[in-house]
Structure formats: structure tokens, C-alpha cells
Amino acid sequence: MSVKIREEALTTKNSSVRAAAERVLRLEAEGLGLLADGLDEKFDAAADLLSQITGKLVVSGMGKSGHIGRKIAATLASTGTPAHYVHPGEASHGDLGMIGPDDGVLALSNSGETAELNDLVAYAKFRGIPFLAMVGKAPSTLASAADVALVLPAMAEACPMGLAPTTSTTMMLGLGDALAVAMMDRRSFSSDQFQVLHPGGRLGRKFVRVDDLMHKGGELPLCPAETAMSAAILTMTEKRFGCVGVVDGAGALIGIVTDGDLSRHMDDGLMRKVVGEVMTSKPKTIRAGALAAEALGFMNANKITCLFVTQDGGAGNMPVGILHVHDILRAGIA
User: Fold this and answer.
1) pTM, 2 dp
2) Most Cβ neighbours (<10 Å): which of 44, 142, 203, 326?
3) Is the pLDDT of residue 244 over 80?
């Protein structure tokens, strides 16, 4: 076979592969569109049911539905709705004991007839535990048993044989995300709460605030405007921030002396001056409640390495901390 023929065959094969991939993605996107269009009072009822659970939500499913269930449980748990996954087989062999009277159950099954879920369903119904189902078919055994059943719209699987769970699992995953975000809204879940649940991840680091990183109290390099430059330089050297903040009689920040200011005023008379004669007035500041990522962007935009943190960033301008760019980078924020 010539090189040209091989190249043509490869191009045809790649084109066919891309066409198959495009078909899958368009089918699954169509399924999500139908799911969004079909949201009704059942979804509201599901959110109401989740809101009434004072314990945790136990999510279960078999096979691919189980994998989707694990992700839904993880998303719910990380966004303010306590949840964990229990395998239906393990549930039948003792893990039903993980489900308490204040808990709820979410069971996933495309067919709605998954036999492995029977013991879990029976346990929930016998104990009067709130029971939510996510199914691909209704009527079905699972849908009938549930207090609230979320039924996926009828859609062909993207698998060319129509067998492998593809479109159905995508819709389940999307519906689970929709529930999680709806519950975030209902619970007024804040970025501060998100950080508490994500302390070790990059997402959590995005919500680290200036107040979490800034230096406070005796670490602040501050001096009054009438301070001699010789004393101010000693303060700069001792505190190691490369600057000193200048305050008025009320303690408000009115200026800053940086290494750059020293260079601009470097002459024989520098040591005979006071800080107020050398300082740059109205220094850049940031509020304690600002995100550390915001502070980093502000520093980069203004080509500075230190920021004084003020009480409100406005009137009064009382310094409560100082933040160096290295503090932000050490926290993994970049």
C-alpha cells in the first residue's frame, strides 16, 4: 500500500471517529436540554424533601448508576448537603446500619427495576425514611416506591448498540448537579462555608482572605510622620517588609516609605529629614475581607510587593495588617 493510500485511509478513519464522537456529544447535549425543559414541580418536591432531612443523604445505585451516585454524593457533601454513598450490595450485608432515622435515601436506577436496591428500598420504607429516586423509566418499581421520583426524559443511549449507559448517565449526573446547586441556593451556602469544606484543595485556596494571611500587631512596620529617617530605616530593616507605614496622630495611615522612596531621596541630607518629607502619600491599601487572589492581582497591576491592610479601606484608613506577595504565594495562590 502506498503512502498516499495509507494517508487517505487514516484520514477517512479519523473522520469516522470524529463523527462518532460528535454524535455522542450532540445526543447527550440533547438529553440535557430535554431534562432542563422538563423540570417541573417534582424537582421542587425533591428539593423540599432534601431540605427536611436533618441527618445525611445516603446515595445508592448499581453499576454505572452507582458511579454517578458516588459523584452526586460527593458534590452534595462538598456544597453543604451532608451525603455519602453506600453500595447496594454492601447495604444488604450490614451497611443498612449506616442509615439513621434522621437520614434520607437517594436511589439511582435507569431501569427502575434494579434488584440489588430492593433491600435498601424495603428498609427505607419500613423505617419511614424519606426516599428519593432518580430513574429512567416510569412507571417502575423504584419510581412507585419513592416519596419523590425524578424521571429522566426518554432518550436513546449514545452507544451505537443502544446498550451502554451513556446519555442516561449524563442526564443523571446533570440532574444531580442541579439538585446540589439548588440546595446551595436554598441553604444560602457561602464561599466561606465552601472554604471550610475544601481546606486542602485549589478551589478552597481561591477563597483564602487577606485576613487569613496578613501580619498583625507588633509585626507592622509603622512610625509617625515626624520620625527621623534614621529611625524609620531601622524599623524597615527590623520588620523586613521593605517599607514602613506612616501614621498621623490618630493612628491613621497617611503615607508609606519604600525602598524606592529611599532611592529617590538618597543624598547627603536624607538622614536629616523626617519621614513625612520622604513618604509617598495616600498609599495603596486593601481591606481585610478581600480575597487573597484579589490582593495578588492588585499587587501585580500596581507593581508592588507589599500592601497595608486597613480597617475598612476607606475613611479612617486605620492599618490593621500588612501583606507581602510572598505570603500569598506560600499559600498556593497564583
Assistant:
1) 0.61
2) 142
3) yes
